[in-house]
Amino acid sequence: MPVNFNEPLSFAQRLCEDLEYAHLLTKAVACESSQERLVWVMAFTVSAFASSSNNRTGKPFNPLLGETFELDRRAEHGWRAVVEQVSHHPPICCMHSESDDWTYWQECSFTMKFRGKYLEVLPTGLSHLLFKKSGDHYTWTKTPTTINNIIVGKLWVDQHGKMDITNHNTGDVGTVEYIPYSYFGRGEQRKVQGKVTDASGAVHYTVHGTWDKDLFAQSVRGGAKQHLYVCHPCICCSASGLDVGDAVPTCSMCTRTRVRLCPLSQCILC
Asked: Measured between alpha carbons, how far is residue 158 from residues 112, 116, 127, 144, 149 in Å?
């Protein structure tokens, strides 16, 4: 594969970007209802795909077997993560991260299928999240990713398929469906819709929006919609040190435009 297909990051570094919006987990811990906690966990799982928007299509470099990457954000955000490449063929990365309130770990493995005009990436690894106070243990497998125009044209990325987030402590299930891009669709693209159900199958919350712009949740009992997720071009702390109100730069380190969720936060890898 030509080197210009890569971005100047290793896959171990890229995997840590799943935690860029870990403040969503802090909000989840503060919720009293297990169903409301699951709503914020769903928003956290969607945030893992936020960095794929804004034409970020570069492939990270494969780490060497046994290579590790540590990201210590305890001083700023209260968590620390360690990633290790545990298999080279097939490539598998394992990550463990922890804060005072939660523990998050995952095995990142996948299979790829070339479909002629596009490449389909099918994750097979399982992600785990444990809240220490409530004992809630969530698991999920990431949704498939499609990389379009592999041979000719401009590369662009899309997410599609269903993702179930299961709370093994209470039996609650959050289902997120990523609507595939349609050339003939008149509505907004990159849609996400989902719901939160309890152990009996009763729906408590509905979730809708887009995985690269906005995500909303609303209780089926009524009330106002809750704004969970807002994407913004990121102001990288190493790019120019601009304030939030200034023009949005492109990161000079990794030559890409970053995205983030509200409340506004700095890029954790720059």
From this structure: 15, 16, 21, 9, 11
pLDDT digits 0-9 by tens, 26-53: 999 999 999 999 999 999 999 888 766 6
**Interatomic CA distance for residues 35 and 204, integer angstroms:** 7
pLDDT digits (tens, 9 = 90+) for 175-229: 999 998 877 767 677 899 999 999 999 999 999 998 888 889 999 998 888 988 7
Q: Please state, in angstroms and rounded to a whole number, the distance separating the CA atoms of residues 100 and 74.
A: 10
* CA separation for the pair 172, 197 (Å, rounded): 6
Residue 33: DSSP 8-state? S
Look up residue 54 and give its two tokens. 């804004």
Quick one: tokens of 242? 């601009």
134-151 as b/e: b if 16+ CB within 10 A: bebebebbbbbbbbbeee
